[in-house]
Each structure stands twice: as structure tokens, then as C-alpha cells.
Fold these 4 entries.
Entry 1:
Amino acid sequence: MSEEKKITVALAGNPNCGKTTLFNSLTGATAYVGNWPGVTVEKRSGVYKGKKGVRIEVIDLPGIYSLSPYTSEEVVSRNYILDEHPDVVINVVDATNLERNLYLTTQLLEMDVPVVVALNMEDLLKKEGASIDEEKLSKILGVPVIGISALKQNNLSGLMEKAYEASKEKRLGKSVVNDSSLTEIFAKAVPIYQKREIANPLFHAIKALENDEIEIKANAEAYNEVNALKEGDERDYEADLADARYLYISRECAPLMKRKASEEKKTDKAPRLTLSDKVDKVLTNKWAGIPIFIVILLVIFHLVFSEDFLYLQAMGAFGEGIVVPDLGDSAWTGFFIGESGLASPGVLIMNLLNGFTGWLQGLVAEGFAAIATPEYEWVSSLVCDGVLGGIFAVLGFLPQILLLFLFFSILEDSGYMARVAFLLDRIFRRFGLSGRAFLPMIMGFGCSVPAIMNTRTLGTDNEKIQTIRVIPFFSCGAKLPILTAVSGGIAIMFGMPYVDLITLSMYLLGMIVALVSVLAMHMTTRREKVPPFIMELPAYHLPQPRALMIHLYDKMKHFLKKAFTIIFATTVLIWLLQHLSWNWTYLSDEGSSSSILASFGQFMQPLFTPLGFGAQLNSLGWVFAVAVVTGLMAKENAIGTLGTLAVSIGALASIEGVGDDMVLATMIQATGLTAGGAIAFIIFNMLTIPCFAAVATAKSELPKGSFKWTIIFWLVVSYIVAMAFYLMIDYVWTIAIFVPLFVLGLVGLFLYDRYKTKKENAECGSPS
Ligand code: GDP
Ligand code: MG
């Protein structure tokens, strides 16, 4: 048996040039691809198995524009190549943006590592009618060059073949700079590193000339020697080197890009507006941009959540009430048409799934009824109401969550979300954040955990703390069940049929609370200027079905895993606590208001009285307190818990096939919860401490000392906002208190900010 050879290949390139797509295509991995700079924060590895006899490990590095330590991504990628010595670096280049991408190439070439240049997005280049002379480019750069399409998977085996060949030979770093005054000083500086046996002497010598921060610290002695070489001259080597590299690219490389004759003519004249530029004129318009974004969100929410598709029912399209076609005894009509109108696609899929799980649950219950004797009633109760009820209640939301994420992924992958970040940067700046903070926030709509991890890309600790604190306010997928079920219950009980509008306004409220909190922090405890943030807008892409499927698959996997682990465990635990009394005897469903769980809920209950779901409710009202607590393990639990409890307190005979909105409606009726209390319940759950997983992530990402305050912050904000809304909805006159209070608070903040700014200016030594 021959020993298998092993080599390591690192993918390096600018943000958004397609590294992760290439990584996924090569390794079959399903890493997150986003049409958005900065998605890959950490390096990731996988194995390419397409070459016989060689095990090729592929590393996806974060996207970078240069090897200078301006951003954490640049440091990660640079250190990886310097310290881990990959056998070859594949420099992924967005061929449609050749000149800008080659700047990084010129720096990679300075390292003593084999490099292969992959001209990616060849498909797009062809579509534009352009081509690049690979052979000539390879000759002048001195490394292999090959055109590929990571997305269409063209030429990938050719690329890996070239990479493998290149890995066999040593390569010495080389600079493209040919300005003699610079090359002369290189010739003197390089030996300084060689005599110390430092690897990559040319790279280090150049970095020392550039006064690179990391270099100064890493090789202090050598740096001093290099500095001695420049003695006397006042040259800005960093700027001169950058100029020399650009000069080289524009003189030697750029001409190798050939466009169609007709295109060339056009570009010679006045700058031509591409379709994408025209679209951008509208979408990123100063005034229209944000309203357009809100309209897009509205349409999406309508498609996913509305029970009255296109508001046909509300507009009276069905005349006097809805005409339900008589299809005999078929349960099918209910899936498409309900009392409130035609189901939107999201509601339709949800109805179908719930129909199926309800049928399944009924089947199991019947099975038990047929075989079980009364002593074993508890088994049936545990399996049907506890386990199946809890899990199905949560699964029921999967279709809507997936559909919502399909839409979000389309917006992101097309490049639109990056435009929104650009639009928001102007606004964010006033709040002490950069547009960069928008990516983690938007990711928060999916799940707070990766969103909080993504704050690593942010510039300062301040920006990080502020962003992490507000991420949970961007309501995550797991909170959706709370939003839709409670809004559904409200719709049924209080005759407000617009579930989609209630859900959307809750999402918007979360965002507003986030903005206000950030503002308040910026003006008081976290006063600091934001570092400048430059993000270029990625090109519009047609969303890729494969990438979309990967996103959805990830979501689904995550959700199912949770449903069958944490949620399963909590439902069983809840079931046990609610069927055991303090002296450990089994309580049937009817008796469960003397259960351990009930007394726990009753103990907690008064805490929520100011929020409308506390002691003012009748003797069954403790269920909401329990739901809040189980929600801390996983937010989906809150609704699952209410489903299980609905049966045990006797509000429902069984939850088989009963939608969650119905469960909530029943609970509202049984406990006497008001509309204000129900809304406050949503708000509190949405804004308060997120689930355990998110809390643990926040703890590990937050700078020391700010974790405790973050928890307090979440508790206080959620309590106050929920209370204000409960009171304003149920006691409308309190609006006359809260609105002025809110305005006063804002004015106070501004005044405080003015005062502080003045004081700070005075301290800066300006003669008063
Ligand atoms: P990264 O930031 O370098 O990791 O880039 P990604 O892999 O996240 O890709 C950025 C965008 O470019 C995504 O929308 C991809 O679908 C798209 N993309 C990547 N490779 C290709 C390609 O070969 N052709 C085309 N047309 N699009 C591509
Ligand atoms: Mg990436």
C-alpha cells in the first residue's frame, strides 16, 4: 500500500471574490456563502478528494484587500500563510474586477510560497464578452494562472492539478516593483532577514520598510537595521510601494484584459450606466431607499404569514363573508380557505404540515386508547400531549421559518442586503455604529448565535458591545412561533384579523428598540467616534439555487436538532413537573393546577403583573410565567409549553390538529389575558434575555466586565417596553404619560450629550 501524500492548499483573495463558493465546490462542504464582504470571519478547512493518491486539505481564509494589518481578517489570513506554511496558496481573483484584485496578488507574490492565480467568475467575464490572456499573465507574474468558475464548477480539477504541481517546487518571493530606488533598498534589506534565518525575508523586509505595526513588534532588531538603511530620507515607503504596485498592474496586467470592441468604445466615452447602476440609483436613493426596503419586508411578511391573501377578504372580494366551496366532508378546504380568507403560501404549507402531524398524533392517541388500561393513562398522556404535542407545536413553524429565510437569503445573495447596509451606514453613524454592524444584526433575524460571533469583524470594543446587546432585538427564527401564535390568538379573540401586520410590527418594534438603545448607549456610557468604514457594493447576482438550498438546509438542520434535543428534553421535564405534585404522586390532567410546575408558576406570577400577564389573571394564569422560563432554554419552547399546558389545565380536550393560534386563543380565553397583556407577552419574550446558547456566545464574545451589564440591560429594556405597551394598549389614557416620558427621555439624552461634548472639548485643551 502506498502512503497517501498530503498537501495543504490555502484560498486567499478579496472579499466576495468567490472563495467560499470555491471551497464548497471543492470540498462538498456547505459553508455560508453570502453576497456580502466579511461573511467568512475565521478560516475553515475541508478536504478535496478529486485527486487520486493525494489528500488535499483546503483552507478558506477570510477575504482581504491587502496583507497590512488594518483589519482582523487581514491579520488572520496573513498569519496563517506566514506561520502555518501551506504548500500552495490559491489566489482567487474576481476576473471581472481584475485590476483591484491583483493588488493583493502582488503582495502574495512577495512571500516564499508557491502561488497559483485562479481567475474566478469566468462565466460572468464571458457573458460580458471579455477575456483575459492567461498565458501572458502567467508569464509576467511568474506563477500559473487558470480561469475557473467556482459556481459553475468549471476547470476545478485543472486548478487543483496546477496547485498540486506548484506545491512540489519551492518558490522564492519576488516583488513586482521595478522602481530602481526601491529595488536597491530591497537588496540591502533582505540580507538582514536572511542572516537571521527568518523565513520569507523579502516579505518581512518590505513590511519593515512600510513601518508595518506587526512587523515592528515581531522582528524589532531587524526592523531597526532596516530603519538605519533609510536614514535621512523622508520617504513614505508605504505610499510609494503601493503606487509602484498599482503602476505595475495598470501597465503590465490591465492590458491583458480584452473587451468586445463595441464595449471598449463605450467605456472610452462618458462613463456608461450599466443596468446595475440604474437599479442602484433607485434602491440606494437617499429618500426612497429605506421606504422601498420596508415595502419589500411587508410583501415578504404578507406572503409568509397572512391568512388573508392579498387582503381579498378584507376588501370584500368574497362578498358577504367567505364562500367556502362545499367539497363534502373534506378537511382539505380548511387548508386553503379559512374564516379569515385565502391562505398565503406560508400559511398554506403550515396548514398542510399541521394537518399531517395532527393526523399522526390522533393515530397514536387512538392506538393507546385501544390497548391501554386506565392505570396506564399517564403513558398516553406523556407520549401524546407531552412529547408529540410539544415537538409538533414547534415543528409546525418550520415551513414558515424556512420560507421567510428563503426570502431573506434571496435578498442577501442578490446583493440587495449590502445596499441596505450602505443606506443604513449614514444613519448608523449618528448612533455610533458603522454600516458594518448591520450584517450581524440582519443575521440576528436568523439566529443570534452566529450573529453574535460575527461581531468579531467590528472595529472597536464599543461597537461590539453595542451590537451584541441589540442583536437579540432582531427577532430570531425561534421567536417566530411566539410572534405568530400569539398574534394569531389575538386575531381570533379580539377580532383583529391581520396576523401579518401584528407580526411585522413586532419585528419593527424590535428594530426600533435596538436603534434607541444604541443611541442611548452612544450618548451616555459608550461615547466614542466610529472608525471610518468603507464597504464596496458587491455586484448584483442572480441568487443561486444551490446557495439558497444550503442556507435553508442549515436552518432546517439546526431547527430539527434543537427540536429533538433541547425541546424534547424540556417538554418531558415540563410534563413531569406538571403531573407530579409535591408529594410525588401522579396527577391527571385535571389535577395539574396543584402540580410542582403550577406552584412554581404561581410564585413567579406577580413579577409579571405590571406586564399584564401576572396576578391579575385568574387561577390558571401561571402558565405564562412558566412559558417565559422555558423560553430561556429555547424560545420555541414557550409556545410548545403553552400547548402542553392548555390540555392539562383543561382549556382544551386535546391539541391534536389544533393550530397554535387556536391554542393561544383558548389560553387567552381561559386565563382572561387581555390584548395588551398578550402583546406585552410577545414583547417581553422577544426582548428579554435570549436563549442559553445565545447567552453563552455573548459571554465568550463580549469584552471582560460587560457581560453582567448586558444581562441587566436585556432584563430592564424588555420589562420596561413590555410594561409600557401593556398599559398603553389596555389603558389608552396612559399614552398621555408614556409618549411625553419617551420624548422627555430623548431630549434629556440630547442635552446630556451636548453637555458632555462641551466638557470633552474643553478638556481637550482648547483655550476657553
Ligand atoms: P467570498 O467572500 O470570497 O467567500 O465569496 P463567496 O463565495 O461568498 O461568493 C460571493 C458571491 O459571488 C456569491 O453570490 C456567489 O454566488 C458568487 N460567485 C462565486 N463564484 C462565482 C462564479 O464563478 N460565477 C458567478 N457568476 N458567481 C460566483
Ligand atoms: Mg467567504
Entry 2:
Amino acid sequence: MITAVTSRARRTRNISSTLARLEDIIYERERERLAVDHHAIISVADRNGDIIYVNNKFCELSGFNREELLGRNHRIVKSDAHPEGFYQALWRTISSGAIWQGEICNRAKDGSLYWVESTITPFMDMEGKPYQYVSIRTDITHVKNAEIALSEQKERLRRGQSYANIGTWEWNVKSDELFWSERIPVLFGYAEGQLETNYTNFLNAVHPDDRQSVEAAIQRSLLHRWPYEVEHRVIWPDGTVRWLLEKGAVVTDRNGQAELMVGVVQDIHERKMAEDPLIVARGEAEAANHAKTEFLSNMSHELRTPMNAILGFGQLMALDEQLGDMHKEHIGEIMKAGNHLLTLINQVLDLSRVESGHLHLDTEAVSIPDLVRECVALMYSLAREKNVRINSEELGTQWVQADRTRLKQAILNLLSNAIKYNQPGGSITLYSKEHGRDRIQLFVDDTGIGISPEQRHELFKPFSRIHNQTHQVEGTGIGLSITRTIMQAMDGKIGMQSTPGKGSSFWLELPAHQSSSVVENRSS
Ligand code: ADP
């Protein structure tokens, strides 16, 4: 009896503690449901899709009251924003027992559309078939509307840029990241999106003659925070040249450091053409000049090979001891004319190379006295032959910034002219001096026939030979024009002064090289 009572009492205690636990669980589930109910839009449908439960939020959002919804098929809120295949795929997923998640656009009672992010969970019976579907959703209409507004805004901007032929860009100075709008590649002659966004591609598209000014404008703007504004040409992949206008500004960070550069690019080609018909003429002249240079360069190459053959065989024939005097004299003439022609061909080739911008320069610190000594040694026999004395003792110790080989070519040309157009028994004096704070001038003075002021403007033109008629001096008339182009390419200058009958003074001017860096260069 006691045992029976004790065990009953224990059972009763167990039952009441189980009940208490169950109450707790029910309480907690109830609170969870309440929380979800307050946050989400919930509906439950039976296996046919007919609504059997909706919460208040569902009613609020759809605009239907509960009575209008219960028992009706879920299609009541279906919109025509999605294709039929979308709903078929959804049903296939949930009727097979899988959970479906995605964004759906529904229609409210008043016809307005709303977007929900939805999770539909099927509940399965003992046979593994769904008997009801619970849908939990969040209203994302505001996000969708913002997305739509943004893409409309983007499209509007794109259309605007396209009509105005304007592109925009943004360059992060610190990370070097570059963004540009779809219109930029089009302005550079590519299809939209075809040109990869990077600074090198931008600079490569800029006309070679304008690259320096574009880069300088960017640097100026970064350095002084000035507005960035530059007009420049671009060369399209098909060779078309177009004018663009760039405008931009530097954006600084909290510490005043340059952080971004932002800007617009606009096609101003038509305006530029209308403004200045000279530009058209210049473009055409440049193209014609380019074609001429190309032609000369090709021709010179073609002529050089047969010319070398003529000279080679001429030299062989001259060695033939059985030749009579007259024939020897004829061969001598052939060799003389041939050598002259070869010099001419080589100079034309050099001129065309220099003029077409194919001049490759390796600038370095060059010692003026060392280089002049080398040149004088090379010209020594010609000077002796013409009985001209070369005096180079007055040279300073200056260093210049130049391409050694090309500077040597320029000095040799001045020196050979000073010898060729000198008087027998005349002299040449070479000396150098500082010009301003950072330039050096090298003078080649002669005591020769001189050049009159009227002849001076002809001097640097290709093929112009001033003393051709009066003096039998060999030459081609190309040397000085090459020398001038070389000097300009090295940021240098050439000039002269002369007194006819007394002599001429030709000078070359170049940037000085600081001696400290010369020491560094030599030790490295
Ligand atoms: P080249 O000497 O082969 O004819 P250049 O271009 O070097 O060609 O010189 C062009 C012309 O300038 C020469 O033909 C000559 O008439 C004149 N000239 C050049 N240097 C001197 C000089 N030092 N004195 C007088 N005339 C000169």
C-alpha cells in the first residue's frame, strides 16, 4: 500500500513537472511566433494553394481583409510582373518538398505592386507529401523602388552623356584605381566597354605630341589643386585624329592630401575645326610631310644596297693593275660620284628618320671637353689636308645632358663645315661657356668665307647649299638641318653669327648636367 502511494505520488510529481515544462515550451513558441508575426508577412496555404491563415501584416500589405483572403487561392495577389515559367518553377520546388526562396512582385487589392522577399516551406504528411505551405516574407518594395530609380537614373545619365558626347572619369590618386563611364572608350574611337579602364590605355590614346601637355596639366592640378583643363588630340585605332576637352578637379581628404581626381571628357572636334581652319590645313600638311618622310626613308633604303654594290665592284676594278690610265681615271670618277651619292642617301635616310620622330635618344651626362677631343681627332686629317689649324685649348670642364652619339654627330658636322668653308691657312677655335644658370653653349668659330645675312635663313633648310656656285666644296646641304632637329630633340638649340669674308661662329646650346649627379652616374 505504502509502495503504491509513494509511486503514485512520484508519478503525479513527474506529470506536473512535465506539464510545467510543456507550458514553458508552449509559452516560448508562442512568443517566438509573436515576434515573427510582428516582423514578417505570414500566410499558410493548403496543398492546393488555398489560403488557410494570414497574419495582420499580410492583410495590411495586400489591402485585403482576412475574410476576403481565407479560402481563396494564393493567386489573388499574383501580379503579371513575372513570366509564367517563374511560378511553375516555384510550384515544382515546393510540391517536391523543397524550400523555395526568392523575390516576388505581388499585386495589392488597389492594383498597386509590392515586392517581398519570400521563403516558402512545405509541411509534409506521413506519406512524405506536402499538406500545407507556410510563407514568411519581408517587404522589400522600398529597396526595389530604389534599385529601379537608380537604374533609371543611370540610364538617364548614360543617354545624356551619349547625346552630349561626354564621358566622365574618377581616378583614385592613392590606390591608382580608375573608373570611367561607358562613353570614354567611344571618345577614344573604341566601341562601348571595349577599351580596358586604365591610365596606360588613356595615355596611349592621346596624340604623342599632346601627351606631355596632358601629363603636365595633371601634375599641375595635383600639385597646386588647380582646376584640371586641357584640350588635346586623340588618335583612334583607325588613325582618325579628334580633339577632346578635359575638365576636372582634385578632391582632397581630411588632411588636405589629394585623394581623387574627377573629370569630364568632351568631344570638341567640330568646334575646333570650325574655329580654326588652319588646323585642318596643318593636319593635312603634317600627313603629307609624314608621307614624304616615309617615302624618302623607303627610297633611301632601296638605293643603299645597289649603291654599295657599285662601290664594291668599283673598288675591285681599281685594284686591277692591267687597267690603263684613262680607265683608272674613269673608275676614280665613278667612285667619287658613288661615294657622294652614298653620303647623300645616308643623310636623307637620317633626315627622314629624325623628322619622322623615330629618333631614339639616350640622354646622359656628357663631358664637353672629352667629346670635343674625340671629334677633333676624327677631323684631324681633313683639317691637315685643308691646312686649317684647330684650337680647342680654351674648353671648360662643362657637362651637358645629351645623347652622346647624336651630340657627337652635331659637333662633327659643325667642325667639318668649319674646315670645308675655311680659307687655306685658316683656323678654328672651340670653346664652351655657361649660359644662364643651367645651360651650356659650345662655340665653333672659324676664319672662313662666312655667310651673309641674306643667306642665313636658307642655312638650316634641307638641301640648301649656299656656296655651291662659288666654291667647289663637296656637300649635300642636309647636315645643318639634321643638326638642328637633333638639337631640338635634346632640348637644345643651334645658332650662328657671321661676317662674310672673315668667318662664322656656330654655337650649340644644351641643358647643363649637375656635377653631383655626374659623380653618382660614374660611380654606379
Ligand atoms: P653641306 O655642308 O653638306 O653642304 P650643311 O647643311 O652642313 O650642308 O650646310 C649648308 C650650307 O651652309 C653649306 O652648303 C654652306 O654653304 C653653308 N655653311 C655651313 N657651314 C658654314 C661655315 N662654317 N661657313 C660658311 N658657310 C657654311
Entry 3:
Amino acid sequence: MMLDRLSHQAPDALLALIRLYAADPREDKIDLGVGVYRTEEGATPVFAAIKAAEQRLVDTQDSKSYLGPEGDMGFVNALMPYLFGSDPTMGGRISGMQTPGGTGAVRLALALAQKARVKRVHMGVPSWPNHAQILADLGMELAPFNHANADGTANLDGVLAAINGAGADEAVLLHACCHNPSGIDYTADQWDALAEAFAASGTFPIIDSAYQGLGHGMEEDAAGMRTLLAKVPEAFIAYSCDKNFGQYRDRVGAFYVMAKEPGGLDTAFSNANALARAAWSMPPDHGGAAVRIILRDPDMTKLWLAELDTMRARMRSVRDALATAGRAGRIDLTPLGRQNGLFAMLPVSKEEVATLREEHGIYMAASGRINIAGLTNANLPKFIAALAAVAV
Ligand code: LMR
């Protein structure tokens, strides 16, 4: 039979963890798995700004007829000042299109790079596991380098070697901020060095920005990427609103191209549109439309930014508490206080991750990645005690 020719694939490990956690009856279980923001009460509520925008959308939308493969360009354009600053098109050199979530944007960026004959992508590891999965699915080669040093800082030499050594059929993929899974971002000086290296080598940068606003603020988290874009002729940027607008399941993303000259965008997007049409035809509209409504209304924008501030402050306070705790067993928690965003990596083995899950009801990715937002004042003492007991 035809279906017998398929071999079974393991479920995505991170998504499988959601099910495992849900099936665990222990009341004091702790979910540090998939990357969603949680309040001190463990909830992932819909932003009030999104609720208000959705209400306005319901009241005013008069058609759900098709848009094109580019989606809602009002949404795509309204985001641009947040990514690219006061000259958001950089003199007409940047334009974008909507995608189904950040994953759709990364997929489109890599597929378009492949169409432009990029065969190999350099990437700091560990990275978001789906980066490698998308590359493999496209039949592109992954050239890994170590993203982090043992002391919890970014490995500048590793990324510079990748940029300087990349050939014409290669690109380098960077995280804009709040590195997933390590939380280790490049410093401003390091971004300067990266920008110089990209400019001098002519290597093509692909930037994944999935967590803007969760590190130090919307402007602050874009600064490194803007430093880079100011120096290079071309780049792709994949963007997600899943986290900073809490739109996870509504799949809200965008893909931007920066070309050397404004005239270069037309051909790039003719290809990007064709790829999107063949893959998903057009992106889902609802979530992007809600973001557009927020960003065109100063009061709603204020409300959204205040909600984002609250999220960021909570994650910062969890990081401060971990850093203040100092150690758990052999693990030094102090670098976590200097890192950004939802994630951190703990130097624990797969076996220790399994023990934490089975004996203590603490769920994290097998890589040792934890979701900082899964920790609260209430569960932090239990987490640190369990880690100290396991990571001796
Ligand atoms: C994560 O890394 O947990 C998130 O980006 C969710 C996902 O799609 O993997």
C-alpha cells in the first residue's frame, strides 16, 4: 500500500511536551516548556489591546473576501517604524508582506534565499529547533557555529568567522533579540562588529525577530538589527507578532526584504508572492488586522505598549530572582540575570531533564531550555530546590 511507504516521524519534541504536561495530574507541576508568556498566575491572557481591536474589527469589517498573497499591507506597513525606525523604508529600499506567523516568515525567507541560489546557511547553535527543521525540509545545508561562550556571553569570534568565511551561495541567520533558546544577545559593540563584517564580506544576512519588546523595549530590541541594516546593501527580516502581541495561535507574522536599490524589491517580491501562493496562498487575516487597528490608534498603541511593559518587567523580576538565588546545585544562575527574553539554557543533561519531569513535575525542553515566564514567586523556591537536588 502507498501509505506503507511512509516511515513514522517523532512528534515535534517541544509541542509533545504540551501534551505531556497537560496529562500530568500533579497540582504543583511547573511548565517551563513551549515559549508562551505567562502571568504570575500562570495564565496566557489575550492582551486587552487585542480584545479591543478585535471588537472594533468585528464591528467594522464588511467583507472577508480574499486579499492577495501579500496579506494586509496596512498591517505590514504599520509595523515598519517599530522595526526600522524613523525612515522605515530606508529610502524605499525595504518592503514587506504578511506571513502565517514567524514560522511562515522564516520559511519564506529561506525559500527565497534558496531561489537566489543560497545553498548553505550559517547559524549559531543551539537555535530554535524549527530553524534546522525548515532548512532540512527545503534541502538546504546548515553550517552551525557555537552561539554562546561557557560564561553566558555571545561567542563573537564564532559568528565573525561564519560571516567572514561565507561564500556567495551562503547566508548567515541571526536572531534580532532575546535569543531562543539561550537569552544571550549580542551587545551594541558586538552588533557594530557584525555590521562591519557583513559590510566588508558581502555575506547575506537573514534576521529572525520573534521577540521584539520582550528584552529591553521595542526600540532597544531593534537597535542591533538597525545597526546592521544601516551598513549592508541587502537583508531579509522574518518577524513574529505571536509573542509581543500575544497572538500565538492566530499566526501573525511578516517578511521584509531590504534591497540595494528601491528597484530591486519588485523582482524579490514577485518571487516571494509566488512562493507564498504555492505554499499557503495567503496568510490568515484576523490577527494582523487587529495589530493594524492597534498601531493606527494612539490610545490602543499606548495600552498595548503598557501591557508589553508589564510582561517584560515580570520576566526581568524572575531573572533577578534567579540571579539573586546564585546557585542551584552545580548550576550558576547569575548569568540568567544578564540575559533577555523568554528563554535561558541550563547546563543539564537529558537524563536530568527527565528526572526533573518525572520526580518533580518540572517540564522543560530536552535541551535544558527553560521558559522564564513559567516561573513565579510561588513556584520559584520549588524549582530551585529541585534543580539543586538533581544537578548536584
Ligand atoms: C518556542 O520556541 O517555544 C516558540 O517559538 C514556539 C514554537 O513554535 O516553537
Entry 4:
Amino acid sequence: MNENKLIIFSAPSGSGKTTIVHQLMEKYPWLEFSVSATSRAPRGAEQNGKDYHFLSADEFEAAISEDKFVEWEEVYAGTKYGTLRSELERIWAKGNTILFDVDVKGGLRLKSIFGDRALAIFVMPPSVEELRRRLVGRATDAPEVIEKRVAKAETEISYAEQFDKIIINDILEEAVAQTEKTILEFTNR
Ligand code: ADP
Ligand code: 5GP
């Protein structure tokens, strides 16, 4: 059975998670992202319902009270992110395998809820210095934001061992191939 499986990706920002996952999603159309809800405002070209379900702080609180989340976290001070139950139903109804891009705590929480139905993957940068270089090279964040992300990475990396699989993203092609193999084994596709 391929349905009802979930694959969780967590990583320090800048590890290359998005790059890896997008390559695999192009190849395997049965992989589909769960679109999270967030209380932050859209950035750049982000679209409501595609990148996130953008909620006001009040709407987010209401969704918590109405038990609409499988899990939620205040990932950054004052900003909440959460996995909507409706996303799981929407994606499984199509027979697709759900991908999650969540912070490490959310990832481990989802793993504890779904157990063997979930595969929790941690994408590890080769070093914190290389992580900083990639964030600088990506050029999407201000220097102080980069420093915050790098500082957070140290804590996030300390959770890596609790994941089912650690993918070290040093050489991109190798990281993609390892991730692909891990996913195909897990889903029996
Ligand atoms: P994340 O989604 O984990 O925040 P991204 O996928 O946005 O990270 O990658 C961060 C930056 O690092 C991007 O500019 C990306 O092109 C680059 N990158 C990703 N993987 C590698 C790699 N193996 N070697 C060098 N640069 C990489
Ligand atoms: P962004 O750069 O998009 O503002 O920050 C996203 C951060 O929040 C990342 O660490 C991402 O993994 C995390 N995140 C996104 N959606 C969720 C979610 O639904 N639950 C949790 N726990 N974290 C999320």
C-alpha cells in the first residue's frame, strides 16, 4: 500500500532540503507537499494556498481551538506554523504520499504520532560554516537573519540522531540519490 504514508523533512535552513525535495518531486508526481498554515505574512512571490495557508494571528488561534492542526509550533518568536488535518485528507484522497517541511520539533512530533507510517529524514549540512556560505549564496535573507538561522542550526543539529535517516548534503547529486533510494524503499514504489 502506498497510501497513508508520510515523509517528513527537517533541516536547518540552508541545508539544501528544498533543492533535494524539488528534484524528487519533479521525478515522482505522487509526492505531494502538505501546505502548512502560518501566522506570518507572505514573502515575495509566495501565494496563499500554495506556499502556505496564510492566517492572521486571530485566525491561527481559532484554528488551534477548533482542533484543526495535527501539530503546530511557534517556530520563530511570535510566528506560528502548523500542519492542517485537512491537508492530510486532501493528499491521501488522491493516493499520494505526503511530504512535510517542518521544523525539527514538528518533525519529531509527527513521527511520534504516525510511527511506522512516517519516515523522518534530517538533511544535514556538511558543516555550519558551509551552511552559512549557502545562506549567503542564496541571497534571500538579510545578514542578521542569516546569523539567526545559523545560531538556530546548532540546536537543530542536536536533534538529528532522533530521525530515521540523516542525509548529509555535501555533494548534491549524492544526497539526491540517497534520498531517492530511502523514499522508494519506504514507499515500496
Ligand atoms: P533549505 O531549503 O534547506 O533552506 P535550499 O535548498 O534553499 O535550502 O539551499 C540553500 C542554498 O544552498 C541554495 O542556494 C542551494 O542552491 C544551495 N545548495 C543546496 N545544496 C547544495 C550542495 N550540495 N552544494 C552546494 N550548494 C548547495
Ligand atoms: P519560513 O522561512 O517559511 O518562514 O520558515 C519556515 C520554518 O517553519 C521552517 O523551519 C519550516 O520547516 C517550519 N515550518 C513550516 N511549516 C511548519 C509546520 O506546519 N509545522 C512546523 N512545526 N514547522 C513548520
